[in-house]
UniProtKB/TrEMBL annotation:
Residues 202-330 form the BioF2-like acetyltransferase domain. It holds the Pfam family Acetyltransf_6. This is BioF2-like acetyltransferase domain-containing protein. It comes from Croceibacterium atlanticum. InterPro entries: Acyl_CoA_acyltransferase (IPR016181), BioF2-like_GNAT_dom (IPR038740).
Length: 390
């Protein structure tokens, strides 16, 4: 993972005159609606730019539209870590009573069906302090909760390593309850070299044939945009295209509910305003055949949503679009791309050969009796004693 600029705290005096001391830390709970204040947004956006690990789904331009659409009652709270007046950590949390169909009260990070990562935003250098403050807060505010559920957290990064170290040193009972591998794009190869190594010669020949045949149907163009130019029209086209296929039939398309439609529109607008948006479309005579949304969060990128016209399935427009998406490999600011796809995805897993590990962990909170009850529960769920987070 590429290095980040350090999270600077404002000096109070020349270095030679200042005593050496750790910055004063404060973790507190806030109503998410308080963060719509312009001054809070400035702090939030600064943290997002310098976070030790990127997570677009917890940046202001995505999380606020999510909360407005899906949590109008304000049951989700924001845990904020403050250091010398600056924001050093952020995590949306919720007290939940349902644990994957079981009536087990717990605290958890808040994500939803269209948010594909639960890693908190933390300033560099504050990784361990964030976890220490978070679980101290959870101990004091456990209520009826038996544990804290950290869902869909990226593995192998500095925040994961800090969590492993903290849980071990604090002797907290903990267990990894779910681990999956997502397709990822992590390579120093050029797009052409990557395609050659990723797909067989027979498959590459078939793609060239499909592209040629599709070109014979009319004016075939590839459109790539990173700003907000004609964004409202582009967004409407994407929503229509996605709903025209199997997701529309399954009522899982973004356009099927007012909430997800509003979330998508507002998130794309916000991503464009924050310089996080990339849009790619393959068009035939101006009509979209395949469309894709990437969120660019250096040093990473996130392939957020894709849709294609199923009436042109014989030409594999979705695969042709992913061939165009390999241009991410040419960007010096992007070291890796998360597919945001389910494990064992039938298409992208055969195209992107690298993997990104995402896991969900349960961590014991509260006093000794509560932690003992958690150990029993974790053993039932994982069929083994909770030995920490690997």
């Amino acid at each position: 993972m590429a290095s980040h600029a350090p999270h600077q705290l404002p000096p109070e005096a020349p270095a030679a005159a200042r005593p050496v001391r750790a910055p004063a830390l404060r973790l507190y709970r806030a109503d998410w609606r308080q963060l719509e204040n312009p001054a809070e947004l400035v702090r939030w956006d600064a943290l997002s730019r310098y976070a030790v690990e990127p997570n677009p789904f917890f940046e202001s331009w995505y999380l606020l539209p999510s909360l407005r659409a899906l949590d109008p009652g304000g049951s989700v709270a924001m845990l904020l870590l403050e250091a010398e007046g600056q924001l050093a950590g952020l995590l949306p949390v919720q007290r939940a009573r349902d644990y994957y169909g079981h009536p087990i009260p717990h605290w958890r990070n808040w994500i939803h069906a269209n948010a594909f990562l639960g890693t908190p935003l933390v300033a560099p250098g504050f990784e361990r302090q964030f976890w220490q403050c978070l679980f101290h807060w959870a101990d004091e505010n456990a209520g009826t909760a038996l544990f804290f559920h950290m869902a869909q957290m990226a593995e192998k990064g500095p925040l994961h390593r800090a969590l492993v170290q903290y849980v071990d040193e604090a002797a907290r009972p903990a267990a990894t309850v779910l681990r999956e591998e997502r397709a990822a794009l992590i390579s120093d190869l050029s797009p052409e070299e990557y395609l050659e190594r990723s797909l067989s010669g027979k498959k590459r020949k078939e793609l060239r044939r499909q592209h040629r045949r599709l070109s014979e149907e009319g004016d075939l163009t590839v459109e790539r945009k990173t700003g907000g130019d004609a964004l409202a029209q582009w967004t409407a086209e994407f929503l229509d295209l996605e709903r025209s296929g199997w997701k529309g039939e399954a009522q899982s398309a973004l356009d099927c509910t007012d909430q997800t439609r509003a979330l998508f529109r507002n998130a794309l607008q916000g991503a464009a305003e924050h310089g996080r948006l990339e849009r790619i479309a393959i068009r035939l005579d101006g009509k979209p055949l395949a469309m894709l949304v990437n969120f660019l969060c250096p040093p990473g990128a996130f392939s957020y949503k894709t849709a294609f016209d199923e009436s042109f399935a014989r030409y594999s427009p979705g695969v042709l679009l992913q061939r165009e998406n390999l241009a991410l490999l040419t960007r010096s600011d992007i070291a890796w791309t998360d597919s945001c796809a389910a494990a064992d995805h039938p298409m992208i897993d055969h195209f992107w050969r690298e993997k990104r590990n995402v896991a969900s962990h349960n961590i014991g909170i509260g006093g000794s009796l509560r932690r003992m009850a958690f150990r029993v529960l974790a053993r039932i769920e994982t069929n083994t004693l909770p030995k920490g987070i690997a």
